[in-house]
């Protein structure tokens, strides 16, 4: 199978993966045992049986409670190391990975424990795994804006070791413009900016407009609804903005991978790339996503190569590092 062979050998960047969404059932159970956390599920099969989603909200209702097993600095290091090890095995050359500090600080885990645990894994990855890695701290849009402000303030001592900030969690009723001031402060602190515009959410085109015009993002996560707004798409293409698509995730959050929309972005010259999102929950890491999309959309080998190329061009790596890979 030539398509599978091409994907199997193709280096790429991962620009949209939530570290907490890489918590595989095996590690979940191991951390629960290590920390004495009582879970309702006792086996890998039982954990997997809870992974039934038909919306973003139904996914988040499983995703957040699982994080209770993440308690110590070592837990966060182990989580990130497990992901980066898988990424290395999938020829991921660079990974710009999300984490959700408020999902941990809100249950009493100090910000420093989370960040220092993750940084230990991220800063070892280039030497030990050959993966250039960086952290993107996401604000939870369904928490108060003041909590995002506090999270940004807590991050400032680490500003030179955190690449960017993002916006995730339940999008309904939580437009990007609500966070424009926090994002402006984050940019002042040297962070790159990205925002989730999840698939088919209420108000999605207005959210895309706000992300582009009010927040002035440096990238958009998901965002495929932009194909419905040609003037916004033209603006994004003109700015060379990256779009981080996640086909398998789309298939859970909606009922489709949104392959036609992803292909439309590709044809429009947008820097769209393919990513894992929450691979422990949605059934595949980067390569599984790329192959699934390639098959459903009947992509040519040149299209698949372009998607991988776009992942480097949409990354926030220094230009000379990007050039090495193209
Ligand atoms: N948090 C983790 N995964 C997410 C997604 N796909 N959308 C919004 N928030 C998330
Ligand atoms: Zn996401």
Count of helical regions: 17
Which topology does CATH recognise? TIM Barrel
Count of distinct strands: 8
Mean pLDDT figure: 97
The helical percent reads: 40-55%
> CATH H level: which superfamily?
Metal-dependent hydrolases
Structural class: alpha/beta
CATH architecture classification: Alpha-Beta Barrel
**Strand and helix order:** HEHHHHEHHEHEHEHEHEHHEHHHH
Multimerization state: single chain
Q: What shape does the CA trace take?
A: globular
Which sequence of strands runs across the widest sheet?
1-2-3-4-5-6-7-8
What summary fits the major beta sheet? Answer: 8 strands, parallel
Radius of gyration: 18 Å
N→C terminal distance: 25 Å
Taking pLDDT < 50 over at least 5 consecutive residues as the criterion, the unreliable ranges are: none
Under CATH at level 1, the class stands as Alpha Beta
Number of domains: 1
Keywords: Hydrolase, Metal-binding, Nucleotide metabolism, Zinc
EC number: 3.5.4.2
InterPro entries: A_deaminase_dom, ADE, Ado/ade_deaminase, Metal_Hydrolase
Catalytic activity: adenine + H2O + H(+) = hypoxanthine + NH4(+)
